[in-house]
Every structure is written in C-alpha cells, then in structure tokens.
Specification:
By secondary structure, this protein is α/β, with parallel strands linked by helices. It folds into two domains: 298 residues, Ureohydrolase domain (Arginase, Chain A, 3-Layer(aba) Sandwich), CATH 3.40.800.10; 65 residues, no CATH class. The chain contains eleven helices and 14 strands. The strands form two sheets. Strands 1, 2, 3, 4, 5, 6, 7, 8, 9 and 10 form a ten-stranded mixed β-sheet that branches.
Length: 382
C-alpha cells in the first residue's frame, strides 16, 4: 500500500504549537508526521494512526469538512501522554470523486491498518464515515460491536441518509451489538426505542449517564468501533455545531467517556465527527474535539489487558447457580472490573461468551435476580 496515493500529508510547523508548555512536552513534538519524502512506512512500529477525512457530502454541516486541520492545531499543542507513545499522523485522506468512492477507499485503508493491529483515530468530516469504518472490518472480524455517542438515532426516517440504517442492513460484516450513548428523549421516537429493544441493542439516555458516568465504562468495554458525534455536546460547550441543542453532554463528560473508550482492551478504532468550524468562538469546538482525542489516547496508554480469556491469578472467580443457569463471574484483581461468563448452543455446539458486567450484577444474581445485560445478550443466541 503506497500511502502517498491515499493521503495528503499534514504540514506540521513546530513553532505554531507551543504557547505555555515546554516545546519538548507537547504532543506534536512526540508524533511522527508522514511526509512526501517517506517512501515506506511500517505501521507495525506504531500504536495509533491518526488521519483526517475532509468529507461532508452526506451532511448538512458543510463546515465539518475543514475541521481536521483546525483540530490538529489544538491537539498538537496539548501535552504528551507519556514517554512511550508511538503515534503517526498520516495527514488527510484524499476523498473520492463520489461519496461511495470515499467510503470504499477509507474501508480499504482501515482494513490495512487493522491488519497491523494498529488503532486508527479518524477526524471527520461527517458522521456517515462510520459506515466506511464498519465496512473496513469485513475481512477482519465477522461480528462487530459499535458504540455511537449521539443525541438521536435517526434509524426509521426513510427521507434521510442514515449510516446506522446501512450498517443494520449489512451482512458482511455483521452487526452483533449496537450501543447508543446519550440519546435525548425528545429527539428519539418511541418506535425507534422499541426497535432497539426488539433487536436486543442498548441505549443509555443522557440523564442516565449523568447519574453515574462511571457505569458507562461497563457498556463501552465490549465495543469494537467507537464514534462520537460532537453534536451530542451541549451548544454552550461546543458553539459551532450545526445540530447541537441547549441540552447535551458537558465537555468534561464527553472527555471522560472518550477516556473509557481508550481504556477498553477491545476497541480497535475511534472516530470523531461533525466538528463545526463556522461560528466557532475562539475555536472552542475544535479545542474540545482535540481534548476528546487526547483523552482517548490517554485511556489507551492506561490499558491493563485484564480481559479474562485465560486462567491466571489476576482474577477472583465466583460460580453461582440461579434457575438452573450457571453464572461464572470474574473480578480483576488489577482493576476490580467484573465479567460474566455463560454458555449457549450454536448448531448443537456449546460455546462460551464473556460479557462485561458490574459488581451490582453479581449482587443481583446472589439475590436471585437475573442480570439485565445477560438476558439481553443471551437472547441474541436464541
């Protein structure tokens, strides 16, 4: 793969990126920037790959197209995470003649990046690019879990293009689970919520997240593709967003959620979209987008690799019996996170599934109550 054929390198000028931090302490000083002089880049030498996509043809937010470089101006002025970062910025993807050309090109690039076990960070551009991200997994993984931070669902409106509708229809790869974070009741129809429930997907209302934001980590932990629509942030915290409303996530809440996404050992791609530039007072939306990405990177370098996929001394194991069902809980001694192991039948073959849960789920089973998450996921196999 010749990167020059797909990317327009970003011109990083060091003297533009440090206002109050020591020069060597800023993120930009510790990122490798792909350039026209590079004949070959071995992506396996990096943990994270950043690239922008200047695309807006399926969005009413026309100014999101120019967001990537504005976001970089803020991102690379922030502090480095640690001394061991291995991050490369490939520049901006060269969009296609048609929107379908762009989708195809991005999915191809993402497949090549994912094959190297490197995590891509996409800076949009419009939210429909998540569809291209999803298709990039076609030859990587059969069943995909997606999380979307968004104030609405837009899955049953036949008059609008919806990347979610396209993903729901896909057979290769297959959408195994969908999670919406921070929907707002007045932007979502009862029919949409019923459809989510019927398909055993999950939605966390913004108010529910605000009650205990730490609980969102449990839901995020099992995700493969994580994306953020910046319009989920309230207007006062992101003033340039085309679809933002007076209510929404606070800036610190979306940054905390992004950090949880980074901490997930399962998440293998991250994208942030719909950052507006028009009317962006003091480039506040660009700055917030940069801080969201920074928190994801920080979370990534906090990963503990404590998923209970093998027998080690790093877990406490609890086996409970309820209604003739065996529930095996694992508690990490490293992070105190919980998982639930259960079995299901697939074509007369008994298979194992491990689901992220909370300590409260364990208590519920002790008290004779079936865990809600277990029931939702168990139904997927019936």
């Amino acid at each position: 793969m010749k990167l020059k054929n797909y990317f327009e390198p970003f011109s990083y000028k060091e003297n533009e990126y440090f206002d109050f931090l020591p020069k060597d302490s800023i993120l930009g000083k510790n990122v490798y920037f792909f350039s026209e002089k590079d004949n070959y880049i071995n992506l396996e030498n990096y943990d994270l790959v950043i690239f922008g996509v200047e695309e807006n043809r399926n969005s009413k937010n026309k100014f999101c197209k120019i967001a990537p470089n504005f976001v970089r101006k803020k991102l690379y002025s922030l502090s480095k995470i640690n001394e061991n970062m291995k991050i490369i910025d490939l520049g901006n993807f060269k969009t296609g003649k048609t929107i379908k050309d762009t989708y195809f090109g991005i999915s191809y690039i993402l497949e090549k990046i994912l094959e190297k076990n490197v995590i891509p960070i996409l800076i949009g551009g419009s939210i429909d690019l998540v569809f291209a991200n999803f298709i990039g997994y076609k030859n990587i993984k059969k069943n995909i879990n997606i999380a979307s931070v968004d104030s609405n669902l837009n899955i049953l409106n036949e008059n609008n293009f919806s990347f979610l509708k396209e993903i729901f229809k896909s057979k290769e790869p297959n959408l195994f689970h969908f999670l919406n974070l921070s929907y707002q009741n007045y932007f979502v129809s009862e029919e949409e919520l019923n459809w989510i429930e019927e398909n055993n997907f999950e939605c966390l209302r913004m108010g529910k997240i605000r009650e205990n934001i730490k609980d969102t980590e449990i839901f995020i932990r099992d995700i493969d593709i994580f994306n953020v629509n910046l319009s989920a942030v309230r207007l006062s915290d992101s003033p340039s967003n085309f679809l933002s409303s007076p209510n929404g996530l606070y800036a610190e809440e979306i940054c905390q959620i992004a950090k949880y996404a980074g901490m997930s050992d399962n998440i293998s791609s991250f994208g942030i979209y719909e950052t507006g530039i028009k009317s962006d007072d003091n480039f506040q939306s660009s700055h917030l987008t940069a801080q969201i990405i920074w928190h994801f990177i920080e979370g990534f370098y906090w990963r503990k690799a404590d998923f209970p996929n093998k027998e080690t001394e790093n877990y406490e194991k609890f086996i409970l019996n309820l209604n003739s069902e065996i529930f095996t809980f694992y508690k990490s001694r490293i992070t105190e996170r919980w998982w639930l192991e259960f079995f299901y039948n697939d074509k007369n073959e008994r298979k194992k599934f491990i689901l992220s849960v909370s300590h409260q789920d364990y208590i519920n089973v002790l008290n004779g109550n079936l865990p809600e998450r277990w029931l939702k996921f168990y139904k997927k196999f019936l």
